[in-house]
Write a structure and sequence with these properties.
Elements: H1 7-19, H2 22-29, H3 33-47, E1 52-55, E2 58-61, H4 63-90, E3 94-101, H5 103-106, H6 109-119, E4 123-130, H7 133-141, E5 147-151, E6 159-163, E7 167-174, E8 194-198, H8 203-215, E9 220-225, H9 228-236, E10 241-245, H10 246-250, E11 257-261, E12 267-268, E13 270-275, H11 282-296
Parallel strand pairs: 3-4, 3-5, 8-9, 8-10
Antiparallel strand pairs: 1-2, 5-13, 6-13, 7-10, 7-11, 7-12
Length: 297
């Protein structure tokens, strides 16, 4: 159905109601007085009822005009709210950010970064999910997420990749194990030791196996799991020694487990990813800065 009123007519009506006169409305809108009178007359003709009663040069709104004005003001308050939200988005005070990260960072580091990020952005809404790297890359490439954190190497043609600083790997050792008393651990110390490692289909597991093979180390891999977080949890329960990035292991620090740096240079290589096409969301750029800051600290 075609609308009876147009925006210009509603603006004129509102100006008359606010100013209390045709002359005042003309001044408020910077138009001529006859133009305001003509618009009001057209509006009344379309509606089929009077909006104002004329008493010489003065006018008074009818009850119908008062009722219409209340509804018009509701709409204008909504428009003003939209305008404020639009300004807030530009100043990163409002809006929404969709984040996808690896399970290894989802338990502690990224939540800390999100919390700090939102302290100065109370109106921003965050959707945060944990999933494997390949799935993150696919969903970021199709703009279902604004930003992601993946593990390298990973090749995908429709994302932009910004590597993060390498995160050193550590050994997570049950507190009663003999190696728990050492300040550092060599991978060679793990020969024949009962271990909990990430599943064989993982790129990281392939790298771990390659390093072990190069050193002639053959650990006793008793448990495999798709998540280094689960591996750390199992190590904390005494199921075996696990290897994980420093940030994954830190959350398990306690009386039941010892976290020891490795002699060998072995690190987790991660990266921030964005959709390849289009402008990056300003909130995503700011969150990436917060995440890098959290990693440095």
């Amino acid at each position: 159905m075609k609308s009876v009123l147009n925006i210009r007519q509603i603006e004129v009506f509102r100006a008359v109601m606010i100013s209390g006169s045709i002359t005042g409305a003309a001044t408020l809108m910077n138009v001529t007085q006859p133009g305001v009178s003509r618009t009001v007359a057209i509006l009344e003709s379309k509606l089929g009822y009077a909006l104002f009663t004329r008493q010489g040069r003065r006018i008074a709104p009818t009850p119908e005009a008062e009722a219409l004005y209340r509804e018009v003001e509701k709409s204008y308050r909504s428009i003003e709210l939209i305008s404020q939200v639009a300004l807030d988005i530009g100043m990163q005070k409002a809006g929404a950010l969709r984040i996808a990260v690896l399970p290894a960072l989802a338990q502690w580091l990224v939540p800390r970064a999100i919390s700090r990020f939102l302290k100065t952005r109370p109106k921003v809404r965050v959707f945060f999910e944990s999933m494997p790297s390949r799935q993150i890359a696919e969903l970021v490439s199709t703009k279902q997420f604004d930003i992601g954190v993946i593990e390298l190497p990973l090749f995908h043609s429709s994302i932009e990749i910004e590597p993060l600083e390498p995160i050193p790997y550590v050994a997570i050792i049950p507190a009663l194990h003999r190696l728990a008393t050492q300040p550092t651990v060599s991978l060679q110390d793990l020969h024949g030791e009962r271990m909990v490692l990430i599943s064989k289909h993982s790129v990281v597991r392939h790298q771990i196996d390659s390093v072990f093979s190069g050193l002639g180390v053959a650990p006793d891999v008793a448990i495999e799991t798709p998540s280094t977080t689960l591996a750390c949890a199992l190590a904390a329960e005494g199921a075996g020694i696990a290897l994980a990035s420093k940030w994954t292991a830190t959350q398990f620090k306690g009386e039941n487990v010892a976290i020891r740096p490795l002699h060998e240079s072995f690190a987790s290589n991660m990266a921030i990813v964005y959709p390849e096409l289009g402008e990056r969301l300003s909130l995503a750029i700011s969150f990436a800065e917060e995440l890098r800051s959290a990693l440095r600290q």
